[in-house]
Write a structure and sequence with these properties.
Helix content: 10-25%
Radius of gyration: 19 Å
Shape: elongated
Number of helices: 1
Distance between the termini: 28 Å
Number of strands: 8
Strand order of the largest sheet: 1-2-3-4-5-6-7-8
Strand content: over 45%
Largest sheet: 8 strands, antiparallel, barrel
Structural class: mainly beta
Length: 202
């Protein structure tokens, strides 16, 4: 979330380039898939991990369902992240939901069905995050903030070996920060969003 929370976008771009090259070589070697493989819709589910920036430790997971083929899928994610900054430690929990529109449903000549959750996509995403700050000196709670973000994204997903997915996405939107104590007024600002996932289609 925001530019500083780009979820290792540079690493994601590097992985995407490598995945694209490998997928292209495998696709050209294999040729077109058989007619039987290309009937119906592709995999209906995806479970993925959402990595974080190298400056934080955490775990993020995402489940996606091809709920309304041939174009629409719904994804939900949850993340837990910790970070230390000087005398303070932060703990963040994040829940998000995403509606994705699959533009072509195909990628690099690989056929997972007439259409699938692959290739280019556009998405609308909502995020709700709570961050609590603790003093590392006397271990007291300093305070907490809630962040609500809404984003419009563009992304691309490639598939390796028919089951491994690698996706990158980037976009822009707005986020609102709310003081959990209610003492400070809410602040809404524009921001950018970037990230990648890797996981399994089934």
């Amino acid at each position: 979330m925001r530019a500083a929370r780009g979820s290792a976008t540079l690493v994601g771009a590097t992985l995407l380039a490598a995945a694209c090259l490998l997928a292209t070589r495998r696709g050209s070697a294999a040729g077109a898939a058989s007619a039987t493989e290309c009937h119906g819709w592709g995999p209906r589910n995806a479970i993925s991990e959402r990595p974080f920036a190298f400056t934080s430790l955490g775990l993020g997971a995402q489940y996606e369902r091809f709920a309304l083929p041939p174009r629409w899928s719904i994804a939900g994610s949850f993340a837990l992240r910790t970070a230390a900054h000087g005398d303070f430690a932060a703990l963040s929990t994040d829940a998000g939901g995403e509606l994705r529109f699959w533009i072509t449903g195909k990628t690099f000549g690989r056929c997972l069905g007439e259409r699938s959750m692959v290739g280019p996509f556009a998405a609308a995403r909502l995020d709700l995050e709570r961050t609590s700050l603790t003093s590392r000196i006397d271990h007291r709670d300093v305070g907490a903030t809630w962040t609500l973000g809404d984003w419009l994204l563009l992304g691309y997903r490639v598939v390796l070996w028919r089951v491994v997915e690698v996706s990158v996405m980037a976009g822009a939107g707005f986020y609102t920060e709310l003081d959990a104590s209610g003492l400070l007024a809410p602040v809404t600002l524009p921001g950018v969003f970037g990230g990648f996932t890797y996981g399994w289609l089934f």
